[in-house]
UniProtKB/TrEMBL annotation:
The gene is LOC113068989. Residues 120-145 are annotated as: Disordered. Residues 1-24 form the signal peptide. This is Glypican-1. Cell surface proteoglycan. It comes from Carassius auratus. InterPro entries: Glypican, Glypican_CS. It is found in: Cell membrane; Secreted, Extracellular space. Belongs to the glypican family. GO terms for molecular function: fibroblast growth factor binding. It is a lipid-anchor; GPI-anchor.
Length: 323
């Protein structure tokens, strides 16, 4: 998905300016110098009309760009909910630490149950100080992943809202540093002389430039490179919506074959809404964390060691899910 975004921006940046646009920018920038009024900045409305005419095709990206931002905000909202996969996975260390702490606090109860089933245990090699250090480590682990994820999602949401109107605000942003201020409305460069600029500011998009007084543009001939990127945005939006609905989506770049009629997703009756969880099959032998020190009696006590280990693990898992 990020690769598709990167190619989208590269393609839009490579769209060349028209000859009429270059002429209008040159007139706005250098004609005041030739007229002996180099001090005069372009009138605000004059600059906006020039930039709106030059970026008319790019402004047509606005509709699908907003839809894409909305789709991404929906993804962020999904990830922010308690049942988010990322939230669950990132909270596992905290849950495991809580389960271990709970088990340590109720160690006598667990020990009595295990001793009844397995008999008296061997002397532990760990000291009380080591057990306390392990407890402190478990407490330090808890609480950090969820806060980090929440901060990342909050930052992403803020940035998405900031760029939602990027293409229609671009002409105004390009004029901020070069246009005159409100107090200079009568002493700015209007394209012909230092005076007030009278024409109204054009709307956004190619169709709104039909009467643009600064940039001559044929609204019946849209830039095909931009139209191709509009289709690319639609494909990205559809794929994000499929992903939000729980469908498997292939986010490989399709800019080379974008003219096809398909969008890269399977039909509703072909997409499985209940994906199966496949457990890997392995023939590797089971290795226990604490192998028996007395190898001569392995055959005699193996039937007792397995229930003991299983009982400990079952107790830990039970506590984990209760929390």
């Amino acid at each position: 998905m990020l690769q598709m975004f990167s190619k989208f921006f590269v393609s839009v940046l490579q769209v060349s300016l028209s000859t009429e646009c270059v002429r209008a920018i040159m007139k706005m920038t250098y004609c005041p110098h030739c007229s002996g009024v180099a001090f005069a900045k372009p009138c605000s409305s004059y600059c906006k009309n020039v930039m709106k005419g030059c970026l008319a095709n790019q402004a047509d990206l606005d509709s699908e760009w907003r839809n894409l931002a909305d789709a991404m905000l929906e993804v962020v909202d999904k990830l922010s909910r308690p049942y988010s996969v990322d939230s669950v996975v990132l909270s596992l260390p905290k849950r495991i630490a809580e389960a271990i702490l709970y088990m340590q606090d109720n160690l006598n109860t667990f020990n009595n149950k295990v001793f009844q089933a397995c008999g008296s245990p061997a002397q532990s090699s760990k000291t009380e100080d080591q057990i306390k250090r392990g407890r402190n480590t478990a407490e330090e682990v808890s609480g950090t992943p969820e806060a980090q994820l929440e901060k990342v999602l909050s930052d992403v949401s803020r940035m998405l809202r900031d760029i939602m109107q990027y293409w229609v605000h671009l002409p105004r942003k390009l004029c901020v540093d070069r246009e005159s201020g409100p107090s200079e409305a009568d002493t700015c460069w209007n394209g012909m002389s230092v005076d007030r600029y009278l024409p109204e500011v054009m709307g956004d998009g190619l169709a709104s430039q039909i009467n643009n007084p600064e940039v001559e543009i044929d609204i019946t001939k849209p830039d095909m490179a931009v139209r191709k990127q509009i289709m690319q945005l639609k494909i990205m939006i559809n794929r994000l919506k499929y992903a939000v609905n729980g469908n498997d989506v292939d986010f490989q770049d399709t800019s080379d074959d974008i003219s096809g009629s398909g969008s890269g997703m399977c039909a509703d009756d072909q997409c499985s809404r209940n994906p199966r969880l496949m457990a890997p099959n392995t023939d590797k032998p089971i290795v226990y964390a604490y192998p028996s020190e007395n190898k001569k009696v392995v055959n005699g006590r193996s039937s007792q060691n397995l229930p003991c280990v299983s009982l400990y693990l079952l107790s830990l898992v039970t506590v984990l899910f209760r929390r």
